[in-house]
């Protein structure tokens, strides 16, 4: 059992949340994007051993989606924050 | 067996002191298999037996059978949902039936019957469909009702009292359990006898690829030149594939299991409930071996959790109320590489010479013989056998997924 700090509600039991998978950036919505790139986005996963950026949904709480950075070997969560439209690449890529 | 013992006592012929020997690491092998589990060792065994390829190294970062092969709940069955899945697992079940004789090692395969319970009308419909698909493929599998379930398994509660009463079950008489370590040891022993090198405590640290061809595997004990590398790992499959620059649609989840204290034999069938996320069988030692679905979030941690024990105990008591006084002895977890369509990935990758036998999710152990045999055929002939074609990596780019919802841990 792990505690997850919801950015809105504070630390809560893992069972209140739904795991949403690792974060990966969506290709631009354009016909110029080759289909294989969409396959990579939908199916292919980094499946990292170490610090991973991932989605969580607080289903038994505020019902908001947020991002967490969690060590996948120890389940220690480094930080949690909301996704933003103009979030800078360095903000998301820092490991 | 006893005759053999007497004969050995008289002529002084002792069996070799070790099941497999420790060999020096050569700097070149024809084939390098990464992962010394049942899959990797089965592949090595069939490479030697069917195709005469013995210049093969099997590498494992720990001891052989220390991953999924030693952590599963040992259930063998072939009553899957898709025709591709049924054919594939049926060949595997048949190879398991012959295994003790073939490997000259008792793997203690006990075909005791396998019951998949249905608690909702939808589940009954799915079971009926599975029974039809199975029968069409010649697999012994049929739908049975509570009266027959109670006859096959007297301690089970088929009344209307539980929250999810049992409505029907898919009955698969050839389903069984096996000694999983014996399978690993049997394959390792035969592979070793044929001259294949098994290197334990040898971790792969890198893979060299030149002009999208595999040239070398770097290990903690030195580099190995080779043209063919088979990634037969679980839990580390994306890490290994990443070394060769191959992307995989795999996410690793832990799956927990536990055993109770030993009880007198009372359960001689395997009981599975997709809706309640529980499967249980009684081992030869009398322990109840119980497993559940994969954990709710991806992780490489193999720590057990209280959430799991609470959940499985609750579900077990719905099925077997008489077990309320039984204590859990120990729990553990293994890593399951889940794919989007609950089917494995076997065969070629965009990198020439880098092959995969991965994504085995919650169904890897029961497929060890067939995947080993067919992957050996693929390595020796350079052609994808028909049985493996549906499970190729390219299916994701060709939008031709398998969709195996008959797998364990899939609710209906």
Summed up, the helix count of chain A is 2
The arrangement of helices and strands of chain B along the chain is HEHEEHEHEHEEHEEEEEHEEEEHEEEH
Strand fraction of chain B = 15-25%
β-strand number of chain A = 6
Report the uncertain regions of chain B. Answer: none
* Amount of beta strand of chain A: 25-35%
Give the topology.
The complex is a heterodimer of chains A (95) and B (412).
Chain A (H helix, E strand, L loop, with lengths): L2 E4 L3 E4 L4 E5 L12 H8 L8 E7 L7 E7 L5 E5 L7 H5 L2
Antiparallel strand pairs in A: 1-2, 3-4, 4-5, 5-6
Chain B lengths: L1 H10 L19 E4 L3 H14 L4 E4 L15 E2 L6 H21 L10 E5 L2 H16 L5 E3 L1 H7 L15 E5 L3 E2 L2 H14 L3 E3 L4 E7 L2 E7 L2 E4 L2 E4 L5 H7 L7 E10 L9 E4 L4 E5 L5 E7 L11 H14 L8 E11 L6 E4 L5 E5 L9 H14 L31
Parallel strand pairs in B: 1-2, 1-12, 2-8, 4-14, 12-19
Antiparallel strand pairs in B: 3-7, 4-6, 5-6, 9-10, 10-11, 13-16, 13-17, 14-15, 15-16, 18-19
Helix pairs in contact in B: 2-6, 2-9, 3-9
Description of the molecule:
The complex is a heterodimer of chains A (95) and B (412). In chain A, 14% of the residues lie in helices and 34% in strands. Chain A has two helices and six strands; from the N terminus they run βββαβββα. Chain A has a four-stranded antiparallel sheet, with no helix packed on it. The longest helix of chain A is centred in the middle third of the chain and has 8 residues. By secondary structure, chain B is an alpha/beta fold. In chain B, β14 and β15 form a beta hairpin. In chain B, α2 runs parallel beside α6, α2 packs across α9 and α3 packs across α9. Chain B is globular. At the A-B interface, β3 and α1 of A face α7 of B.
């Amino acid at each position: 059992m792990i505690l997850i700090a919801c950015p809105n509600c504070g630390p809560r039991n893992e069972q209140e949340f739904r795991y949403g998978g690792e974060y990966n950036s969506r290709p631009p919505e354009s016909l110029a994007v080759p289909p294989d790139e969409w396959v990579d986005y939908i199916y292919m996963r980094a499946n990292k051993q170490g610090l991973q950026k991932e989605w969580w949904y607080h289903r038994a709480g505020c019902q908001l989606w947020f991002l967490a950075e969690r060590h996948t070997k120890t389940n220690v969560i480094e930080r949690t924050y909301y996704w933003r439209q103009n979030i800078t690449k360095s903000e998301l890529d820092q490991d | 067996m006893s005759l053999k013992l007497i004969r050995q006592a008289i002529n002084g012929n002792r069996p070799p002191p070790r099941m497999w020997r420790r060999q020096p690491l050569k700097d070149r092998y024809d084939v390098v298999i990464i992962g010394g589990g049942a899959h990797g060792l089965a592949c090595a065994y069939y490479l030697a037996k069917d195709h005469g390829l013995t210049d093969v190294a099997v590498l494992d970062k720990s001891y052989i059978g220390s991953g999924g092969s030693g952590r599963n709940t040992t259930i063998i069955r072939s009553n899957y949902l898709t025709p591709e899945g049924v054919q594939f697992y049926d060949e595997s079940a048949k190879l398991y039936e012959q295994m003790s004789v073939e490997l000259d090692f008792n793997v203690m395969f006990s075909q005791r019957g396998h019951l998949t319970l249905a608690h909702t009308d939808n589940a009954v419909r799915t079971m009926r469909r599975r029974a039809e698909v199975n029968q069409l493929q010649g697999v012994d599998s049929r739908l049975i009702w509570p009266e027959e379930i109670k006859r096959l398994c007297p301690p089970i509660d088929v009344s209307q009292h539980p929250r999810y009463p049992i409505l029907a079950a898919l009955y698969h008489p050839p389903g069984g359990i096996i000694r999983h370590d014996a399978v690993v040891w049997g394959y390792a022993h035969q592979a070793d006898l044929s001259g294949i090198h098994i290197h334990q405590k040898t971790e792969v640290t890198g893979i060299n690829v030149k002009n999208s061809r595999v040239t070398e595997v770097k290990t903690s004990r030195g580099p190995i030149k080779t043209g063919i590398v088979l990634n037969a790992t679980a839990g580390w499959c994306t890490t290994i594939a990443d070394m060769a620059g191959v992307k995989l649609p795999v996410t690793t989840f832990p799956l927990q299991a536990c055993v109770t204290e030993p009880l007198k034999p009372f359960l001689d069938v395997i009981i599975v409930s997709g809706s309640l996320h529980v499967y249980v069988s009684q081992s030869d030692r009398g322990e109840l071996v119980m497993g559940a679905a994969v954990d709710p979030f991806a992780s490489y941690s193999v720590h057990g959790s209280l959430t799991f024990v609470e959940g499985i105990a609750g579900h077990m008591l719905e099925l077997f109320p008489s077990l309320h006084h039984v204590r859990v002895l120990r729990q553990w977890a293994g890593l399951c590489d889940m794919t989007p369509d609950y089917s494995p990935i076997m065969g070629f990758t965009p990198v020439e010479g880098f092959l995969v036998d991965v994504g085995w999710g919650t169904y890897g152990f029961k497929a060890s013989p067939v995947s080993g045999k067919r992957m050996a055929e693929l390595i020796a002939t350079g052609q994808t056998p028909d049985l493996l074609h549906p499970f190729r990596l390219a299916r994701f780019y060709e939008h031709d997924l398998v969709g195996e919802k008959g797998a364990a841990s899939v609710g209906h």
